[in-house]
Amino acid sequence: MKREFKLSELKELNRELLATEGCHARLLEAQETVNGILLGKDQQVRLSFCCLLSRGHLLIEDVPGVGKTTLALAMARVIGIDYQRIQFTSDLLPADILGVSIYKRDKEEFEFHPGPIFAQVILVDEINRASPKTQSALLEGMAENQVTIENTTHPLPEPFFVVATQNPLDLVGTFPLPESQLDRFLLSFSLGYPDPVAERELLTTEERSRMLDRTTPLLTSQDIKALQKDCEEVHVSDDLLDYVQALLKETRDDRWFETGLSPRAGLYLLRASRANAFLEGRDYVTPEDVKIIFPSLARHRLSPSSGFAQSADEQIAELLDQVSIP
């Protein structure tokens, strides 16, 4: 039996549809704006927005000066929500991130002063320059959107998006991130040096810092939450699930890696693949979406088995070629 809608219900549905379409258009405009600031890195920018739409966190690893911080700042500017930048150094303390309680003599009680983690977008610059103790201050917030301080749990704002940059581990003054910390990041990638065409444009056009100053917000907190919800509705077929499970199973074969991907990594893979399909304007996920997301999801979680001369990235590319697409 067909349902008959009242005129008022049809108008409301139409308003919701128009709002969704407008929100998606602004999302694509935001993506293009970041592409215009960070030249020649369209794939990395796409992955950054996939991470945001998947309610995940992003880790960018590369040498200084290739645009890691610029990408994070551009994302924060176009999203248009509250953000904070935390420069990690060797003497940074957990309280510098979480906040402190200060005794108020006139009230005869302690008053909590929240730290920079209580923002919607957190730029953690050079995360591996801080000690493991300070790095761990982010763990609860990234996993559960809350922090516990002095036996009191404080919820974090929504959306909550951490973009962290780190230097290669062979540089001076770095502390490697433990596996538990790495697993909190949904995606990870390296920017690399720009191609000659993009680099020439970078050298001859306006400085990126001035472009960032002129960048205006294109999305709101409500837009981001609505878009995240829309991504969760993107369809995943049984055949696609078979492909994802085949990939997960292959990573657990010790001829490839020391340890394989966990079930949580599989859930993250589906979430990010849905986001990539959504950015493409589709309401269903294809194997190509999974193949686009998989390297960035796996590279910081997998270590090649002993005896392999290949890097993790090379191993992952070979594994993708080995697993057949249904």
Topology (SSEs and partners):
Layout: H1 7-37, H2 42-53, E1 58-61, H3 68-79, E2 83-87, H4 94-98, E3 99-104, E4 109-114, E5 121-125, H5 132-135, H6 139-144, E6 146-149, E7 152-155, E8 161-166, H7 179-182, E9 187-189, H8 196-204, H9 208-214, H10 221-232, H11 238-251, H12 263-279, H13 287-298, H14 312-322
Parallel strand pairs: 1-8, 1-9, 2-5, 5-8
Antiparallel strand pairs: 3-4, 6-7
Helix pairs in contact: 1-3, 2-12, 10-12, 12-13, 13-14
Whole-number radius of gyration? 21 Å
Annotated CATH topology of the largest domain? Rossmann fold
Helix content: 40-55%
For CATH, the homologous superfamily of the largest domain is named as P-loop containing nucleotide triphosphate hydrolases
Secondary structural class: alpha/beta
Whole-number count of domains: 2
pLDDT < 50 stretches: 9-19
Largest sheet: 5 strands, parallel
What percent of residues are in strands? 5-15%
Named at the architecture level, the CATH assignment of the largest domain is 3-Layer(aba) Sandwich
Count of helix runs: 14
**Total beta-strand segments:** 9
- Given this structure, which CATH class of the largest domain is correct? Alpha Beta
Order of helices and strands: HHEHEHEEEHHEEEHEHHHHHHH
Strand sequence of the main sheet, in spatial order? 2-5-8-1-9
Shape: globular
Mean pLDDT: 86
Query: For the terminal residues, how far apart are their CA atoms?
Result: 36 Å
